[in-house]
Amino acid sequence: MRAALTALTDELKRLKSTGVTSVPVSAESIAALRKVMAARAGKSPEQQPPQAAVRETVTPVSASAPAPVRPQPVAPKPKPEAARLLPPPPVVALPDGDKAARWAWLRDLVLNHPVCVANVRPGKKVVLGVGSLEAKIMFVGEAPGAEEEVRGEPFVGPAGQLLTKMILAMGVKREDVYIGNIMNWRPQLPTPAGVEQVGNREPTPEEMAFCLPFLRAQIEIVNPDLIVAAGATAAKGLLGAGAFKTLGEVRGQWKQFSGKPVLVTYHPSYLLRQEASGPVAARKAKRATWEDLLKVMERAGLTISEKQRGYFLEK
Ligand code: URA
Fold first, then answer.
1. Pocket flag, ligand 1, residue 181 (CB < 6 Å)
2. Is the distance from CB of 18 to CB of 210 less than 8 angstroms?
3. Ligand 1 center to 279 CA (angstroms)
């Protein structure tokens, strides 16, 4: 039992370090934890303070479960209304087999996963990564948007079209890289019944933690030489929310995830937004991103022409 409690504490610490502030726990589990703690302290479970074992990182699944109340010194950040309570992240144990068979198994798991399915609106799709299973380079973005949840493919809307151009500028075809996301569903915003969602929201830490095992599994299958994290959410998902305060602290630097080098760069949506700020801002952001991609090309052993080196430089 001691080992189980240590493992539980370690897992809670790990989740906390990735930015997770609460995990759902059933009323039965809380009761069982109380019993264990009471036995260790030589008290009956009723005498045991409710938070002794699980602290404030744990929230009950059902509103009717006995709430482990302890006054919170700081009011918790309100959750987006549409973010649901999620169960703990799934454990994904890939089967043996070749890459195609393992990827097909994972695709089936993710697209039919009850939690993923419950988080997409009727008629919309859960989205897994796409691309070459032999890719040397894997791009990781944030979450599907409006077009992606309709087509069931990442990066097919305006940001995706820009990403495709960036990949082509590197001298690589889109189908020769692998493109995935931190999230497998479009984070929902409350909308009146029958009305399409307009706009996107950032995924919550709980949502990101839930989908992360699916991304890890894709990395395990594809086994790319390196990963490009596009934008702050991808960087938070891969490096942990505590790894940086502003994207500028990590952008353009090599980091690690799952034993793979990760380069953080701007998200194509940011580049599109910079277009609206005028030509100077747009060129500066594009050049900074391009310099990151030149680092990626160098590390991936791609040939770089002089013309490519000069893209987006001031004339
Ligand atoms: N933005 C992302 O981060 N991912 C997508 O799939 C589309 C837009």
1. yes
2. no
3. 24
- At what angle are helices 279-299 and 268-276 packed, to 10 degrees? 160
Q: For residue 122, what pLDDT is reported? A: 95
Q: Give the number of other Cβ atoms within 10 Å of residue 161's Cβ.
A: 14
Rg (CA), the chain: 22
DSSP-assigned beta bridge partners for residue 58 = 23
| pLDDT tens, position by position, 114-173 | 999 999 999 999 999 999 999 999 999 999 999 999 999 999 999 999 999 999 999 999
Whether 153 is in the pocket of ligand 1, judged by its Cβ within 6 Å, is no
DSSP string, 123-155: T------EE-TT-SEEEEES---HHHHHHT-SS
Instruction: Identify the band that residue 224 occupies on the pLDDT scale cut at 50, 70 and 90.
Output: very high
Domains of the chain: 2-61 (no CATH), 81-309 (3.40.470.10)
Any ligand 1 atom below 6 A from CB of 143 = yes
**Ligand 1 lined by 187 (C-beta under 6 Å):** no
Which atom of ligand 1 lies at the shortest distance from residue 182's CA?
Answer: 3
Compute the distance from residue 199 Cα to the ligand 1 centre, in Å. Answer: 12
Strands 137-141 and 178-181: parallel
Closest CA to 247 of 260, 270, 265: 265
Residues 240-253: tens digit of each pLDDT? 999 999 999 999 99
Predicted TM-score (pTM) of this structure: 0.76
Most ligand 1 atoms within 8 A of CB, residue of 139, 181, 207, 228 to mutate: 181
